[in-house]
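tl;dr need the bound structure. longer version: we got a ligand (biotin) that a collaborator sent over and nobodys looked at where it sits. i said id run it. heres the input, straight from their email, havent touched it
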Amino acid sequence: MIQEQVLALLKASGTDYLSGQDISRRLGISRAAVWKAVEALRQDGYRIDSLTRRGYRLAGGPDVLRPGELTGQLKDCLVGRELVCLDETDSTNTELKRRALAGAAEGLALIARKQTGGRGRQGRSFLSPEGGLYLSILLRPPLDPTRAVDLTAWAAVAICDGVEEACGVRPQIKWPNDILLSGKKLCGILTEMEVEGETGALQWVIVGIGTNIDLDPQVLPPEAAAAATSLAREGLSVRRSDLAVCQLRALDRMYRDFLAGNRARWLARYRADCATLGRQAVLLRRGTQEEVFAQEVDDQFRLVVRHADGSLEAVSSGEVSVRGLLGYA
Ligand code: BTN
């Protein structure tokens, strides 16, 4: 724990030296404990410069996900104000659900290096080996459940923000919430919520995001491999913790706007990012396939499709496949 706090302070001070005395005062620990933590971090692969009378400075470190890498940069955030990093779990959504049922507070974020039982939309599994960022956040919006259903669309825009901030490239959204780069799937989002049976009150919402960082597509089944991409495959290199910070900060900004009711702004942003619009698409539902035109996203984030007879229909579920835009679950 002390190690994580020392790491967080060193990260926050960037290229400036931080004196051992300063660290010991800020954390309320002895100078010897600071030295011990610095040595332990060095053992973990961190390069920490030290200069007499000036103190310590972080010069580099391994590309790992651990609280000390993240917490210093999430200080003002509601989303991510508490953070758990796991090496492995069945599913970050499932684990967070267990913690939500045990009373965990809003804002808790859970990150895993790999998942053994990753879940996707429509009951599908989501293969989650090392090489991805598997992240879930717990929200408890004080709202009617009907007002929380489109959080997943807001989250899609936030994830585009997070990727853009971390990597300098803005992905696109395949309706309803696949995140694509070069027409292939980079991230999947699974939003789940619980409503109390008796009162109809919303208990919790969990938004889970899986992002391919440098996952080797060959580990995926052939069909999924063809539809998937990763940041590395697109020539983008990013530290895992930087991507996690950017995603969490973007989700935090989104959630504040969500609570403030700034819906029109996010609807406009969603429409601008949505690659499905203005294209011929195939609507796949109840075992049927139909050629339609993806005309617009309405005020409830539903996809309005034009049928061959010219009639319009707002679609809120089902799958839409668009030539040139791939996706997998
Ligand atoms: C989909 O594309 O169908 C949604 C995939 C969502 C995957 C993420 S990874 C983190 C979180 N934990 C899960 O088990 N699923 C979500």
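gonna send this back to them w/ a short note. The mean pLDDT is 93.
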